[in-house]
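Notebook, p. 212. Picked up where the previous page left off. The plan for this session was modest: take the two constructs that came back from the sequencing core last week, fold each one, and keep the raw output in the notebook itself so nobody has to go hunting through shared drives later. Recording the first one now, exactly as returned: residue sequence, then the C-alpha cell string.
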Amino acid sequence: MSILPGTAPDALEEDDLKQYVADELARVRDRSVGLTTDVLDEAELLAQHSRLMSPLVWDLAHVGNYEELWLLREAAGVEAMRPELDDIYDAFEHPRATRPSLPLLRPREAGDYLGLVRRKVLDALERIPVAHAGSGLLDGGFVFGMVLQHEHQHDETMLATHQLRRGDPVFPGSDGLPAPSALLTSAEVVVPAGPFTMGTSTDGWALDNERPAHRVDLASYAIDTVPVSNAAYRAFVEAGGYDDERLWTPAGWRWRCESGKRSPAFWLREGGTWLRRRFARVEPLPDEEPVQHVCWFEADAYARWAGRRLPTEAEWERAASWDATTGTKARFPWGDEAPTDAHANLGQTRFHPAPAGSFPAGAAPCGALQLVGDVWEWTSTEFRGYPGFRAFPYREYSEVFFDQGYRVLRGGCWATDPLACRTTFRNWDHPIRRQIFAGFRTARDV
C-alpha cells in the first residue's frame, strides 16, 4: 500500500501506519543526506556559511540526536547511546553563531551515528504500538510524526544555508518540470464575515501550537488571490518605497536605516536590469514568481504602499481552510487529499516558487490560489498560544517563543515537505529574517 506524504495518519490502522512511518523515515533521511554529504565535502559541511546559520553537519547530527532522544529514549525506553552529544546538539544551549566552536561530529562519524540510531528505531517500531497506543506520545504515532516533521524543518533550514553559501552550484539550475497550469481570475477575493474553526483538536500529527481548535468570528475582508509577485514588489522598490519613512513602522524604519537594505535579499541590479542570486547562480529576476526573501518589515511596508495591509493569522487560515457554504474545515485548501504536484509547489521538486496564479486544482473554496507552497506568507499576527494551549511534549517547541515579538508565517513554501505543511501549521520568525523562503499576500477591510 503506497501512501502519499502528507496523508493524515488518523485513519490508518496499525500495520499501514507503521509502514507509512518507516517509508517516511527513509524518505526524509534520503533528503537530509542529499543536502549534506551527497553534495559537499567535509570542509564545506564543517564551515559556517553565515552567522545566521549552523554548519550543515551540525544540523545533520542534530536530527539524529533528536531522533534518539524522542524515538529511542522517550518512546521505546532505550538507554542513551551517546549522552555526551546531548549538550552539543541542544539548540537552546548553543546559538547558531557559536556552534562552529563545538566539538562537532565529523561528517562520516555523524553518518555512522545516524545509521545506528535509525537501525534501532526501526527495530523499536516493530515492537511498540502506534495506531491506538493510548499514550499521548505514541497514540496515532504522534512522536514519529513529530520527529519526521522536525527533520524536514531542518532540511528546509539547510536549504536556507545553501542559499547563503558561496561557492560552486550543487543543485540543478532548472527543474525540468513542465510549467504548472495557471488560472488568475481576479486580483482579490472577498471572504464573507462569520465564525470558523481555527486550529485543530483532531489532526493526530498536529503540533502543540496548532491546538486546540477554537471558534473565531471574523468581519468580512478581501485577500489577494495570489502572493505578491516580483514584478509587483519591484514597482514598490522603484517607486522609492525603501526611502519613504511614512510606509514603515518605527521598528521597521530603524531596521531599514541600520541595515541599509533597498531591495529583497539576493536581488542585484545591473544598469536597468534586475537579477537574483539563487543557489550560487545569478539569473534574471523572474517577474511572474512570488517575491521571496523579504522580511516582515518589508512586507508590511509594501502593503501600506499598496493601500492595504497584511492579513491576520486568523484571516489567512479562514481563507485557506474554511468552506463557508458547508461550514467545514479542510487540512489543505483543496480538501483533505494529500498534496500532489497538481495542487501545490512543495517538497523541493523545484528550487524556486512557481509563477503566481499557478495550481488551480489547489484553489481554496474562497477562490484564492497558492495558499500552500511556493513561499511562506507573513501575517500581521505575533506568535502566541491559542486559548487553552498546553505545551506538549516539551515547552521549547513553542511556548518559550510566545509573546517575544516573533511574527507568524503560514502556508509553507517550495522547500517545505508535504508532511510538514497543512492549513493549521504555524511557523514563526523574527520580523527581520530574510534568509527564509518567505513572501506574502495582502488584505483589506471590506
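Okay, moving on. Second construct, recorded in the same format:
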Amino acid sequence: MPNVCQEYITLSAYLGQVREVMEEADGFPGWVVCELANVSWSRGHCYLELVETDSGGAVVAKARGTIWSYRAAALSLAFEDSCGAPLRKGIKVMLYVQSQMSELYGFSLNVLDLDPSYTLGDLEAKKQATLKRLAEEDLLERNKELEVPALPYRIAVVSAEGAAGYGDFLKHLSDCGVEFEVVLFEAAMQGESAPESIAEAFSLIEERAGEFDAVAFIRGGGSNLDLACFDDYLIARSIALCSLPVISGIGHERDNHICDEVASVRVKTPTGAADFIIGRFADAYEALQDVSERLFAGVDDALSDCENVLERLSSRFSSSLRGYTEVRGVKLTNLGFRLEKAALGNLDERLHYLDKVFTLLQGADPSRILERGYGIVTIDGQKVTDISSVAEGVRLVIMMKDGKVSLTAKDVAIEKKTEK
C-alpha cells in the first residue's frame, strides 16, 4: 500500500496529466469493434454508448463515443447508403476512434470514421452461424416437409396490424372472391423485441393449430437492418417447429432471410403470399376441369363404342333372322295350315253344341208348354210349384194358351204324389 504521507495532487490535475499523455500519443487512434448500446442526436452531434459483450451476453467494456456535427451527417449518410438504415441501437460497428479526456466530462472516444461493410459482414456472419446451428438441429427442412393444402381458406397470419404489407395481403385475398377465414396474431416485425414477439405469436398459433390450414408470415419491405431480425435463430426455430405449413413473404423480391429458408413455402412479398394461396384454389379448379373434361371424353368414347357394338349386333341379328326365315319358311307355312284346320274343326264342334243348347232352350219356353195343353197356376203373381202352398180361400189364377181363369180354393184336400 502506498505511503499516505507521500505527495498528492488534485483529481483535475491527475486527469490533466492523463489528458496530456493521450494528447502526446495523438489520442491513440485506431479501429475499434463494438456494439451500439444506445444512439442519440442533439444539435447535429451524434452521441453513442459503446459496449463489448462476451459470448454469454455480459458487458465486459463500456465507453462513450461522439460523432461531432462537422462529420456526423456525412458518416451517418454513408452508413445508411450502405446498410439501408441509419445508425441505431443493437448493431455491431467498426469505428475509427481517437481517445480524448476532459477533466470535467471524463473519458470518451471521438469517432472519426466508420466502416459499414463490417456491419454487413457481421450480419452475414451471424446469419451463417444461425444456418449452421439449425442444420445441426435438423430444423432446416422440418417445416418444408409440410405441404400447403389444396384449398387453404383458414389462414393464421403473423404480422403487424397496421402494416402496409398486411393490408395489401388482405386486399389481395378479398379481391379474388373467395371467402377466406383470416386471423391475425399480431407481433413486432422489427427491432430488438421482434424475435420474442414473433415466437410468442407462433406459440399462440400452435395452441389453435386445428383451426387453420396454413400460416402466412408477412412483412413489407425495409432496409437490411430493419429486416435483420428475420435471420434470428428464435424466429427460425419457431417456424421450423410449427405444425402447420408456413408461407413466408418477407420484404422485397431481392431479400432472402433465414425465415425463408426454413418455411414450407417462400414467396417474395406479402402480396406474393396472397397470390400463392389464391393460386392453390386456381390449381384445384384447373385440376377439376381437367378431370371433368377427361370424364366427359371417356363417356363419349364409351357411348360411341356401345353404339358401334349395337350397330354390329343389329346387323348380325337382321342377317341371321333373314336366314332363319328363309330356312324355316316352308315349315312355318305348313304349321299355319295345320293351326287353321284345327281351329276350324274346333269351331264346328262349338257351333253344333250351341245348336243343341238352343233347341233345348226353345223346348223350355213357357209358351211352348201352354200350347201342349198345360196350364200355369199362380198365387199373387207367384208361380205355384208346391201343393202345400194352396190353402182354403186362396185365390188361384190359371194361365192357359188362350187366356187365364181366376178361382177361389174351397174344400181343399191335399193328396201328395207318392214317390216310387
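Notes on construct two before I forget. The domain at 126-282 is CATH 3.40.50.261 (Rossmann fold).
Flagging for discussion at group meeting.
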